[in-house]
Design goal:
Elements (H helix, E strand, L loop, with lengths): L11 H10 L20 H12 L5 H14 L8 H15 L4 E4 L6 H8 L3 E6 L2 H17 L12 H21 L11 E12 L8 E4 L4 E4 L4 E9 L2 E8 L10 E2 L2 E3 L6 E2 L1 H9 L4 E10 L6 E4 L3 H25 L33 H23 L4 H21 L6 E2 L4 E2 L13 E5 L10 H11 L10 E4 L12 E6 L9 H16 L27 H22 E11 L4 H14 L2 E9 L3 H6 L7 E8 L6 E4 H21 L4 H16 L2 E5 L8 H20 L10 H13 L4 E2 H10 L12 E4 L2 E4 L15 H13 L3 H11 L5 H13 L4 H10 L2 H16 L2
Parallel strand pairs: 1-2, 1-17, 2-16, 17-18, 21-22
Antiparallel strand pairs: 3-4, 3-11, 3-15, 5-6, 6-7, 8-9, 9-10, 11-12, 13-14, 18-20, 19-20, 23-25, 24-25
Length: about 900
């Protein structure tokens, strides 16, 4: 079987840089069509698919194709005619026909989109109806209705033109009804946003204050503007005045972590009581400030609310009730989502704990009015298109894109969107993979700015419409489970996919937020996608723990991922290639994927860690984190895999893993990514066997193989860190400290990860808790010299002597420092200072790094002094 390029070489560093850079790109990117969680970067998807579908060739050809991939993966070349045409030509030459490929976990559509761009016959699936709808808008509809059929056409295509036309029609119709609820001020200033705070009554019996719950009092905190609210207490009433360049700390509000402090009497409400009061209906809301914009003045302005502001809001509330009754009769469904928010997933959706029990409860009355008015106009637009003679299917597609715009209104204008004073705008709901409670929020004027204008999606639609058709093939997106793929055996040339990872992302619970509104806009057009009250959760491949233990949830997930890998094996042609993206960092997660691959019949042939996270985001995290996803390359073998014998496999691991690790090291892979990448490299060996046995016939477990891989990786990394000089001279404890710092810096680590790291170095963490290791719950902390007490340190091990010397140096205790170095014998040893230097290179800027740098600044002088003292002490 001829090897694919990705099975031999890959420009890892360049593709990683482009993948991380892509997070900053918005205009025209598919992420701006509709939110989906944990989308794969287009850069890495395009690069890995191309490298999987072209052959390796000779050494010169490999070099040329590596260089081409560096060009291919750049965002600027996404729709470059020459670049994409060459990639398609290379793939077509290799296969003789457009390769038939599938993504069984299509999600937001990044991977199948890039397969389509590269000229593949593209199929995609997802179990979630919202994901299916997004993919249809990403893959199917632009290919069916773009108009040109060749891509890169002159002028605007039909689909983009009609989406713009009807998007503007919807906006005009909705604005005509809604504008009176966002009136301009007397001076012509138009409200951009309204800032609200939820309220609770003070629980001090002698205080009757109604406390506005605000995390902070900043309204604007930019380079040009510093505006805040200052509390004004009159009796038990809390009012505000607006202050520029405040002389107090507006960063301290009335609520933090659900604990409320009354500004009047100073009493507090505990977090549990805060939740109870919300559940009992004791909370209210109060308009705190109005943000305006004047057509003749630059920037945003702020003012306190007036009686007229509240009068208008109450009018909107009355109008909502009338409109709600009217639309309920027409639609035969409550236009405001009355579906319950499932209470069981509090970790990701915690609002039921605050009395918000229905999805409609997450919006204030004027926000609800805006949403149902836009939905009404979207439905009316469809009817108007039919009256104008549009084909029903084409009218349905236009209406679907209009509903994509509606998703932006739901995301950016709910009672869960907090106000960002640093940017003077709302944040969206999904800042992370959760629907979290917010106590003070910004209500946006949907008629201002581009939020509800069609240009918010027309750029991405224009980009999607430029992809040339694959002759004879239109992309196919279906709703189905990856555990039962609706395609025949031996059907696909390639599978490219990114499966879920345990409970990392609760897709169905998050997508319900949009599902309930999309159902009201599109339910009649897609009855097959909106049959159920909420998205189906019972058979979703996520390790949910409600109604089952953690172990049971994990077992269900593992059974399903195993079945999906078996299905991938079934539908692949013999010799067919698969890319499976995996990013889970725990040992249990990797044991699962190893066992699933071994049992599926797939053979792992390569793996590559591609950096998909921006460095700034990683720096902001306070615990160790992966920035890479491992792209596992596998084949459906032409022949049966054999049984491997552990002793021989272990020797093979040592040989081949060393080559792989050298390659990763040269590509700059480091820290937690190196350790996880080593596992991917080990899979290339162990995945080649059907099963692995000892000579005595005992089956070798995945956990045992993982331990071997860890040990080999740890040994390799430490030797590289210390430049191959003296790693074997170091004690296990010093090796652990050094490798921990290299892996996790000065962050906390999960106990399981730290335990396995220690185990690979022959250390039992539980027996070392009296030194620099601290275990708290599920986390491990390794203390630096700045966190240890000198009287508790026993200067026997090199790392303990190093810490004690650092402490004395930081205190200016030169004599004590030299004494410790002399008495321990380490002060004159080159290895002592090389360990210090290795730690300096592994640490971010912190006290430990500064102390180490100070200690080693005059290492030659220290070595000379301690050597001379040692010599003197040996004299008779």
């Amino acid at each position: 079987m001829k090897k694919a390029l990705i099975e031999k070489t890959f420009p890892l560093r360049d593709v990683s840089e482009e993948s991380a850079r892509e997070k900053n790109i918005k205009s025209g990117h598919i992420s701006t069509l509709h939110i989906w969680w944990a989308r794969r970067p287009l850069a890495s998807s395009r690069a890995t698919i191309y490298a999987s579908l072209v052959g390796a060739g000779d050494e010169l050809e490999e070099i040329k194709r590596r260089e081409f991939i560096k060009k291919l993966c750049k965002w600027e070349n996404t729709n470059d005619l020459n670049t994409i045409s060459r990639a398609r030509k290379d793939i077509l030459h290799e296969h003789g026909h457009p390769p038939r490929v599938l993504d069984p976990f299509g999600g937001g559509g990044s991977i199948p989109l890039e397969a389509l761009r590269l000229g593949c016959e593209t199929h995609s699936m997802d179990y979630n109806p919202v994901a299916v709808l997004i993919q249809k808008c990403t893959l199917e509809y632009p290919q069916k209705y773009a108009g040109s059929g060749t891509g890169w056409s002159e002028g605007e295509n039909r689909l983009v033109r009609d989406v713009k036309r009807w998007g503007e029609w919807v906006f005009r119709e909705a604005a005509g009804e809604l504008r009176r609820f966002y009136p301009a001020d007397d001076d012509g200033s138009v409200p951009v946003a309204y800032i609200w705070a939820r309220t609770l009554p003070c629980q001090n019996p002698s205080c009757t204050a109604e406390i506005p719950l605000m995390r902070r009092f900043w309204l604007s905190r930019t380079n040009k503007n510093k505006i805040a609210l200052k509390t004004v207490i009159e009796g038990d009433r809390i009012d505000f005045e607006m202050v520029e360049d405040p002389d107090f700390d507006p960063g301290k509000g009335t609520i933090s972590r659900a604990i409320v402090t009354c500004p009047v009497c100073g009493s507090t409400i505990k977090a549990d009581d805060t939740r109870r009061l919300f559940q009992e209906g004791k909370s209210g809301e109060r308009l705190i400030a109005v943000v305006t914009s004047h057509p003749d003045r630059r920037g945003k302005e702020y003012r306190l609310p007036t009686e007229d502001d509240m009068k208008i809001f109450l009018e909107a509330e009355k109008h909502l009730e009338k409109k709600r009754e009217k639309l309920m009769d027409e639609w035969l469904i409550d236009p405001i989502p009355d579906e319950p928010i499932p209470p069981e997933n509090r970790r990701s959706v915690n609002v039921p704990g605050y009395g918000m029990l229905k999805w409609g409860d997450l919006f204030n009355p004027r926000q609800k009015l805006s949403l149902i008015t836009f939905i009404e106009m979207i439905r009316n637009a469809y009817e108007e298109m039919i009256r104008e003679g549009y084909d029903e299917e084409y009218a349905k597609i236009i209406t679907t894109y209009l509903a994509m715009i509606l998703g932006k209104l739901a995301d950016w204008n709910s009672a869960l969107c907090y106000w960002r004073p640093d940017q003077e705008r709302n944040a969206d709901v999904f800042r992370r993979h959760a629907v979290p409670m917010v106590f003070d929020y910004g209500e946006r004027n949907p008629l201002m700015g581009k939020l509800m204008r069609p240009e918010t999606i027309s750029k991405v639609l224009d980009n999607l419409s430029m992809i040339p058709e694959v002759k004879g093939h239109t992309p196919n997106v279906v709703k189905a489970s990856a555990t039962s793929i609706p395609y025949p055996d031996n059907y696909f040339d390639g599978i490219f996919t990114d499966p879920p990872y345990y409970d990392n992302v609760p897709y169905s619970y998050l997508s319900d937020y949009f599902y309930v509104w999309l159902k009201r806009a599109l339910g009649d057009l897609y009855p097959e996608l909106f049959l159920t009250s909420l998205t189906t959760k019972a058979d979703e491949m996520v390790a949910y723990t409600h109604e089952k233990s953690k172990a049971e949830a994990n077992q269900q997930f593992e059974d399903m991922i195993r079945k999906s890998f078996q299905e991938i094996h079934r539908i692949l042609k013999p010799g067919g290639i698969a890319n499976i993206v995996y990013a889970h960092k725990t040992a249990a997660g990797w044991e699962t994927v190893i066992n699933a691959l071994l049992e599926s019949g797939l053979t792992v042939t390569a793996s590559w860690p591609i950096n998909t996270e921006m460095r700034a985001r990683l720096m902001a995290q306070k615990s160790a984190a992966l920035r890479s996803s491992i792209y596992i390359v596998a084949r459906k073998p032409d022949e049966e895999k054999g049984t491997g014998f552990y002793e021989e496999v272990k020797a093979e691991l040592k040989e081949k893993l060393h080559e792989k690790l050298e390659s990763l090291w040269m590509e700059g892979v480091s820290g937690p990514d190196f350790f996880i990448s080593a596992i991917g490299g080990g899979l290339e060996v162990i995945g080649g066997y059907d099963s692995i046995l000892t000579y005595s016939g005992e089956k070798v477990t995945a956990s045992r193989l993982l331990e071997d891989i860890r040990s080999l990786a740890a040994d390799f990394a430490i030797k590289q860190i210390l430049e191959n000089g003296f790693a074997d001279e170091l004690s296990p404890l010093t090796r652990f400290y050094l490798f921990y710092r290299w892996n996790f810096g000065n962050n906390k680590a999960d106990f399981d990860d730290a335990r396995l790291l220690a185990s690979s170095l022959g250390i039992d963490l539980q027996n070392e808790k009296d030194g620099f290791i601290r275990i708290s719950g599920s986390k491990v902390t390794v203390l630096g010299p700045d966190e240890r007490k000198p009287d508790k340190i026993k200067p026997k091990d090199l790392i303990d002597v190093l810490h004690l010397a650092c402490i004395h140096w930081s205190r200016g205790e030169t004599g004590r420092m030299e004494s410790v170095l002399t008495e321990s014998g380490y002060g004159s040893m080159d290895s002592f200072y090389r360990v210090a230097q290795a730690l300096i290179e592994s640490l971010p800027d912190c006290s430990e790094k500064k102390w180490l740098e100070g200690l080693t600044l005059n290492r030659e002088e220290l070595m000379r002094k301690t050597a001379e003292t040692e010599r003197q002490q040996k004299l008779p």
